[in-house]
User: Fold these one by one.
Assistant:
Number 1:
Amino acid sequence: MENVNNGTDAIYSLDERINIFKAIPFGLQHILAMFVANITPIIIVAGVCGLTAQDTAMVIQSAMIIAGIGTFIQLFPIWRIGSKLPIVMGISFTFVSLACVIGSKYGYGVILGAVLIGGIVEGILGLFAKYWIKIVAPIVAAAVVTAIGFSLLSVGAASFGGGTGAEDFGSAQNWILGTVTLAGCLIFNIFAKGYLKQLSVLFGLVLGYILALFMGVVDFSAFNDVQIIALPHLLPFNPEFNASAIIGFILIFLVSATETIGDTSAIASSGLGRDVTEKETSGSIACDGFVSSISSLFGCLPITSFSQNVGLVAMTKVVNRYAIATGAGIMVLAGFFPAIGALLATLPNAVLGGCTIMMFGTIVVSGLQMIGKCGFTQRNITISALSLSVGLGFTQCPEIFGIFPDIVKTVFAENCVAVVFVSAILLNLFLPKNMETGRNDDKPQGISQ
């Protein structure tokens, strides 16, 4: 039987057992970092599809349980499904645009049918990743990680301002909350000692929350009519199968897989100081896909690795699977005990933004470090520079995709990660392998074995 390590070094070890009382704060920190982002896609899509408040609450409840289960599987794989890396799972924003289009036209059941089939396709692709993953060279993964970081900066800024669409967006109170939270994170990180230093995000969130309470801006409406305990509903909506919806979702699942590859690479690089392995990438993608299919059976949207939490790992270097598993347990409990989820839902956006803006910047730096590790050859500079320029530049003026079919616009017009991935893959395939000499006889690098 394994011994539990009560020391502080265990939090920096992937597999060492850790005292649960030391583990809980690190797990809670991860949940607070992703909670709002986990339920926001559901709120958006449910509104477009015309779901009732009761149905929306039921789907949110399922989302917490599914996110917890998905995280457990990533941490502790089942067969070849899961990466055994400190990856936190949640409901994906990547599918929101397409889900809104499909849901408004065909209804919520068609979305669930497409998620069920698309998830199975991504899961199978993950299991057989060794046959195609070599085209994702280290420089491609590095460019994708950098793009993920850049794409999230606006998300962090929007939260800092009070949340997209908020009536008081950019108000003085939101500036105060975000700034105090960010300052709290930095000050705690500077003055805290030992392993406590890695709880700077949690400290900032608590400090910001207390300030929000004194300012009277915490919304407790989530506690209205909350149940003490609630069980998830299997097949609360009947899945319906529409060919065009299924094709569209399969394409977005491929985009989601590219983000997962980037997240998995970033976790290994920034958290463990090494390259990701083929087995880890394969298991991570398979988990994304198959758990997404399970998610649809509980009336929920697709699930994926959360870049917010990749940034948290990069920032704190806390990679212990057992510590992060406590966060997965909290998510499952929040699903069965709605009051826990209701409490987490009261966290103001500006407080969350004060912490995430730093975390997202850390992902950008991790991507740049990965590019540097690949080497600044003329070929690598061309691949990273051009793919990032096209991906970040074109998606900032999505009208440029106006001549393309709707499905292309849905997948690429506002998704810089997808454009960067496709551009980097094509450049990696067609550029001479040794541009300095003009030779083309070097073998491309792949993800490490």
Number 2:
Amino acid sequence: MKKVFLLLAISAGCMLSAGAQVRFGIHANGIGATGTMKDPEVDLKQKVRFSFKAGVSAEIALGENISLLPQLNYVNKGGKLKEKQVFELEGIEYEVSVNGHFKLNYLELPVNVVYTTGNFSIGAGPSLSYGLSGKSKFTIGEDDDVEMGSGKVVFDGDDEAADDDMHLKALELGANFYAAWKFNNGIFIQANYNLGLSNISPIEDSKYKNNYFGLGVGYYFNRK
């Protein structure tokens, strides 16, 4: 992670020294976060959980209509579960409601290549996230009357932990898709979709991937 930030700083410094036009901004977004969980016995698609992200941006001009847009964000990923499960006991089938949620806090670095025409911008690029902390909880029953497990989310990549915590890999690689409308007063409206590409589950034959859609507003301090 440190190497990524160092390379970004060096690239930005080279562009600044070459006279590239740069402007800086801040933004805050509401997001709809979800994800997928798969293993040989379970294939679950999480429901959308509404959350947030916030961060800073640097728009670095590469040409008349092309710019590089790195962002550094704090984002709360993770979805929720609401499933009906059927199990058999002494020859009788029972259906129960399984509920759960995952709250995963990340430091995220998307780097978009952006094309701008007029006030509209569109772009895409890679995204690297680093897990900081989180919580998970599972219950069964229509009224969440039986708690099956809850604990912290630990980003240590441990695949043999014997505690109640959820263990995931810290680094996550994704693809980010970006669009924005920029007003002449420095305010902008932005939307993005972040697709998790790497498997963050450390357990063999198991997969966990994050996705989210974001919509928010921001402000550039130095206008063009």
Number 3:
Amino acid sequence: MAIAQVLSGQGLTTGKAPFVENARSRGDLYISQPYELYSEDNQEAWRRLYARIRPRWERYANDHFLRGIEALDLPPDRIPRLTEINRRLKPLTGFQARPVSGYVPGFIFFDCLRRREFPTTITIRPAEKMDYLPEPDIFHDVAGHVPMHAENAFADVLVRFGDCAHTAVEMTAAVPDPAERARRLTSIIKAMSRFFWFTVEFGLMRGPGGIVAYGSGLLSSYGELQHAIESGEVQRYPAQMEWLINQGAEIDRYQPLLFIVDSFDHLFDMVDRLERWMRQGKLNNVAPGLPEVNERDLQSFLDAAFAD
């Protein structure tokens, strides 16, 4: 009881959550959402984030996202219980939000998408960091990503990303030289990460009234959502594969360059093309630059390639 009271008193604030830190120390990636541990400050952070961004969703978000908000009955006044979200989401597309303790290595993340599971952070940003947090929190994951998972065409795109990760593993296992294997795989992971970044995270699409946002990094950011659509500082171009896989990703400031798809069918076709290019070796030598491929991501693909 004493331990539970201590954990409850500290809440589930990003970077200050003993429950999550303990899970990480045990090596537990998949965890529960201990809802009773959310503090009133945590709940107030959700209320503030939701209240200020809702008008911008109405103005700048794509219609599929807005329908997803309603279909999932996303609460404006409290942090959602993932069990409630999943109960409404699964009958729509088969997707589920699966709580995790933190960073999910690349192959494992994409493999989750292939299984229609979305790794979901359970902590929430502190009050002093309402505008920017360098790591995901539950507002980014649930309010930014999950409503899009209620749309079948978009859900199918995510599953195809998972297929691409398995193709990368297949291609990796066929390279006999370990150094060349790692070099090619690093390039492929970089290409996949950039493609995902400029589409699922920061993508724009054509809507009936003009350009709208579907990327979760935009939909969960009060400031950048408006900036992405209205600012004259942003370059917006039709999505094309050569740019998506070679353009470095700006990870710590508003995106200066964004790409527009015509529809989710268009995006699905592009992911198909990404996989074809992978098989043809066209992802083996993409341009250097961000994002860097960390050792855990690389090793997750190598482990999958040579698993018994």
